[in-house]
Amino acid sequence: MMRTDEDRQHQEELSSALVSHSVPNCSVTLDIKEHSHHSSRPEVDVLICGFNLSKLSRNQQFSVSVFGIFVAYLFYGALQESIFRDNDIQPHSAFLTLFQFFIYAILSYSELWLQEISLKRGLFRHYFLLALLTVGTIAFSNASITYLNYPTQVIFKSCKMIPVLIGGVLLQRKSYNALEVTAVLVMTVGLISFTLVDVSVQPSFTFFGLVLVSLALCCDGALGNYQELVMRKLRCCNTELLFYSYTIGFVVLLCGIMMSGQFLSSVRYCAEHPGKIFGHGLVFSICGYFGLHFVLCLVQSHGALTAVTVTTFRKAVTMILSFILFDKPFAMGYVWSALLVVFGLYLNLYSKHRQSWDNYVRQQLYRFGIIKCPLPAVLPL
C-alpha cells in the first residue's frame, strides 16, 4: 500500500526532540517523540529499510537496533580510516566520495521502491542546496582523515550541536536557552582540550585537517537546519531527501572531478586497486547507510536518550578500536577531553527533556523513601 500524507503527519506528530544523526557524515533529520506506552494514539510502524519490526517486542527491537548500530558503524569507522588514511589515496578522495554517493543513491532509490513511496517534485533549488551541503559534509570529512587523527575527527563530528546552534540562530532565527548555550560552551572546551592533546602527542599533526573537519561540521550543521526547513515546506520523508541529496550530489561531484582533470587518473588508480577501492568502498558505504536506519529505529522505539547513550558508547568503542588497530600515540588527556564533550551532549539533551527527566528522578527518589512527595511543592509558572 502507498504511504499516505496522513501517515507521515502522524510520524511527525510523534516528535518532541529533533534527533539528527550522521549517516556517513551526513545529517538526516527525523522527528521522534518520547511517548508513553499508555498513549491513546496507535503506534507508528518501526521500519528498517522497508522491514517492519513492530511485531517484535521492545526488548527485541532494542537488541536488533543496538546490534545493527555496533556492527554497521564499527565496520564503517574501521574501513573509513583504513581507506582514507592512505597517503596514496589523498589525490583520489573525491572520486571515492563519488563512488560513495553512487551507492547511497542506489540504496535510497531501492528503499523508496520497496516501500512504494512516490517521489514528490519540489523546487529544484531546495534539493540542489541540500546536495551541495551533503557533498561538503561527506567530502570534507573523508578528506580530513588523511591529515587528522581519526579519534579527533570522531570527537569533532560529535559536536554537531555547535554549528547547529549557530545555524539555527542565523538561518531560522531561533533562540536557545541557557542550558543549550552552556552545553555548546562545554563541548567547545572539550574540543579545544582534545586538539591540544593531539598537538602534543601527534608528530604529524596538521591544522589543515582541523580546517577540513570544521568545514564538514559547518556543512553538517547547516544541512540539519535546512533539512528541517525543506521537510516542513515540502512535506517529504527522510528517504526522499536522501535520494535527491545523493543523486544530485553525485552529478555535482562528477562535474567537479571532471573539471579538475582528476577523473581519468582516479579511474586508473581504482583500476589498479579494485579490491581496496570498490570492495572495501562498497562495504564501507553499505555499512554507513544501514547504520543510520538502525539508529532511527532505536530513536523511534526507545527515544532520544537511549539512542544518544548507545551512539555515544559506540563512538567510544570506535575510538578505542582505532588506537588498537592503527598505530598511534595515546594520552590520558584524550579521555578527560572526551568526557567533557559527552557531558556537553547530555547537558544539551537534558535541556530538551528537563521536565520529564526531573519528574523521573523525583519518582525514583520517592520510591526509595529519600523524599516524601514525588511532585514539586510549587509548580513553576
Task: Describe how the helices and strands are arranged.
Layout lengths: L4 H9 L3 E7 L2 E7 L14 E2 L2 E2 L5 H27 L8 H23 L8 H21 L5 H9 L2 H11 L6 H24 L5 H28 L3 H23 L2 H10 L1 H29 L1 H22 L7 H20 L1 H14 L14
Antiparallel strand pairs: 1-2, 3-4
Helix pairs in contact: 2-11, 2-12, 3-9, 3-11, 4-8, 4-9, 5-12, 6-8, 7-13, 10-11, 11-12, 12-13
Describe this structure in words.
This protein is mainly alpha-helical. The protein has one domain. The chain has 14 helices and 4 strands. The chain has helices at residues 5-13, 58-84, 93-115, 124-144, 150-158, 161-171, 178-201, 207-234, 238-260, 263-272, 274-302, 304-325, 333-352, 354-367, and strands spanning 17-23, 26-32, 47-48, 51-52. A hairpin with a 2-residue loop joins strand 1 (17-23) and strand 2. Helix 5 packs antiparallel against helix 12 (304-325) and helix 12 runs antiparallel to helix 13. It is globular, with a radius of gyration of 21 Å. The chain starts with a helix and ends in a 14-residue tail after the last helix. The model is unreliable at 1-42 and 377-381 (pLDDT under 50).
